[in-house]
Specification:
Blueprint (H helix, E strand, L loop, with lengths): L12 E4 L4 E6 L26 E12 L2 H8 L8 H14 L1 H4 L8 E11 L4 E12 L4 H19 L7 E11 L6 E2 H11 L8 H9 L3 E6 L1 H4 L7 H11 L5 E6 L4 H11 L3 E5 L10 H5 L5 E2 L1 H12 L12 E4 L2 E6 L3 H23 L5
Parallel strand pairs: 8-9, 8-10, 10-13
Antiparallel strand pairs: 1-2, 2-9, 3-5, 3-6, 4-5, 6-7, 11-12, 12-13
Helix pairs in contact: 2-4, 8-12, 11-12
């Protein structure tokens, strides 16, 4: 195992901004690997907060041999058992064992695994396809890829007596459905890349700044105890990491006393980031004032999103019904009030995981989609 303890992946610099607040800014952002924690150590991603959806994935690969060998496979003329049936069973069985073969994969319930073959004798090729399906919180890409890989290995085992030079090439993901990113196909993605490819080095400093400002985000933590150093804030860093994983940059975190939340929200709305997420101050205690601080700035409320966040929390925490958090747009800025607990933040982010990009895109283009 590679220990990356010294990797520079910390959240950035910290600075004091007055007696009641602490601000942390991430000035630059590199693509985040979700299988690494903040210290660069390998981890298994927690998918507990993701929505349960139907997900499929299709993978492909090409087994290359001699034309006469493909003809023998087609005619079942090899000395071993039925080649294609054996390879199909091997692929299906391997998909079921993916979490045991790939260290950080989750154990997921498979609804189905289908393996099929396309034989092209003149070309000396057997194309292998595998489609896996699940209803769960994470995708089945690795299951489909594992099925193709092991089916190909089995083909090699079956024909190696007559062609030890056979190879398995081009194992890759072909398509997927479900999850927060929706449907994806390799053909469409490659075409889009060809049509819109840009040389990143050609972007001047002004253009880079414009791109980054379009994805800026701010987190305001309303907690008197954390602002005065009586306890460590954990919700702000959790939200910050979630935003960075979704390519928001820069991301700032401001920890303020409950009495200062109105001024903090007003200041951040004035700066007009793409996203402003608050945590804390949404309950019924006398000093819980985040909704009151937010409401005057919203020119388009999104009550359905706020209700979805409460509903997600109610699954495990009855007190989630006490949250008065608001959601809406203040100009171009999406503002979301999240609860102050770690679990409440996790539930709220799980809801936003499915909606955030769509909300920003539709609002940005005036509703056309």
């Amino acid at each position: 195992m590679v220990d990356m303890t010294d990797a520079q992946t910390g959240p950035g610099s910290t600075a004091q901004h007055g007696p009641g607040s602490t601000s942390r800014q991430q000035p630059t952002h590199q693509p985040q690997l979700t299988h690494l924690d903040a210290e660069g150590r390998v981890r298994m991603v927690d998918v507990g907060g993701k929505a349960v959806t139907t997900r499929t994935a299709t993978a492909e690969g090409v087994f290359r041999t001699r034309p006469e060998v493909v003809t023998m496979v087609s005619g079942d003329d090899l000395g071993k058992a039925d080649v294609l049936a054996t390879a199909r069973l091997a692929g299906i069985g391997a998909a079921k064992k993916t979490s045991e073969l790939i260290p950080l994969c989750h154990q997921i319930p498979l609804n189905s695994v289908k393996v099929r073959f396309e034989l092209d004798a003149p070309a000396g090729e057997i194309r292998v396809w595998a489609t896996a399906k699940t209803t769960g919180r994470t995708g089945v890409e690795m299951e489909a890829l594992t099925a193709v890989s092991v089916a190909g290995l089995t083909l090699h085992d079956m024909v190696k007596a007559v062609d030890p030079l056979a190879t398995m090439d081009g194992v890759r993901l072909a398509a997927k459905t479900g999850g927060k990113r929706g449907d994806w196909t390799r053909d469409h993605d490659e075409s889009a890349l060809d049509a819109t490819a840009l040389d990143a080095t050609a972007l001047d400093a002004t253009a880079r700044a414009a791109v980054e400002s379009g994805r800026s985000a701010v987190v305001v933590v309303s907690s008197t105890a954390a602002a005065h150093g009586r306890r460590e804030d954990t919700t702000g860093p959790a939200i910050e990491g979630w935003l960075l994983e979704r390519d928001f940059s820069p991301v700032e975190v401001h920890v303020v006393a409950d009495a200062d939340v109105a001024a903090a929200v007003t200041e951040q709305v004035r700066r007009s980031p793409a996203v402003l997420l608050t945590t804390g101050g949404t309950g019924v205690a006398p000093d819980d004032r985040t909704p009151e601080a937010t409401a005057p700035h919203l020119d388009l409320e999104l009550p359905g999103v706020a209700e979805a966040i409460r509903a997600r929390g109610l699954v495990s925490t009855p007190t989630a019904a006490m949250s008065r958090g608001l959601t809406g747009f203040a100009g171009r800025t999406l503002v979301v009030n999240l609860p102050g607990s770690t679990g409440g933040v996790r539930d709220g982010l799980a809801v936003l995981d499915e909606l955030l990009e769509h909300l920003l895109a539709v609002h940005a283009d005036g509703g056309g989609h």
